[in-house]
Amino acid sequence: xxxxxxxxxxxxxxxxxxAQWLLNVLxxxxxxxxxxFGRRQVKRTIEKxxxxxxxxxxxxxxxxxxxxxxxxxxxxxxxxxxREEKKKSFNKWFDEHIPYxxxxxxxxxxxxxxxxxxTKGGAGRPSSHFEKHWFNGNTRIxxxxxxGKRSLPALECLAIHRFQPKENKNRAQSSKWTKKCPLCxxxxxxxxxxxxxxxxxxxxxxxx
Length: 208
What we know:
Elements (H helix, E strand, L loop, with lengths): L1 H24 L11 E2 H31 E8 L5 H15 L5 E7 L2 E8 L4 H5 L11 E7 L5 H12 L18 H16 L7 E2 L2
Antiparallel strand pairs: 1-6, 2-5, 3-4, 3-5
Helix pairs in contact: 1-2, 2-5, 2-6
């Protein structure tokens, strides 16, 4: 509820900034400097609203999509001393417990999410991350196995939204034939709607 209120207030603030110049013309000029309004303010509000949407909806949307698409979830506790020993142990565990090669995998360090990725080729892709600098201190890897392939990119993207991994640099990739991430669609709709409402010419800035 608190995020919904913050969402509404952010939109209302943008409308107030946009209309303030008109109120000034009609004699309702408030004391102090008038609020700035321009492309920068619209962009900041879009980013804020997208963040609020993620914080509010990510868990719910991810749980719904994962329950529909994931056939099996398993967790591997990091074992061994040397990286090669850990990799060998993980690959053996994967072959014994995961029925499909298509998976979304999530690396954890305690309660902190470190990295989210996807694979179509089984254990090889996630175990390749054992060589990364951020692998030290990881405590477990969650594997979400999928029988179908169309939902894989969308589930990876939803997991990134939900778990907020520290080491993911880019958003999830998708193809035209895959199911799109529902939260990314909401982000796109928020951006498109605000840009259409507050359409500005490049470089325009209101402060009067």
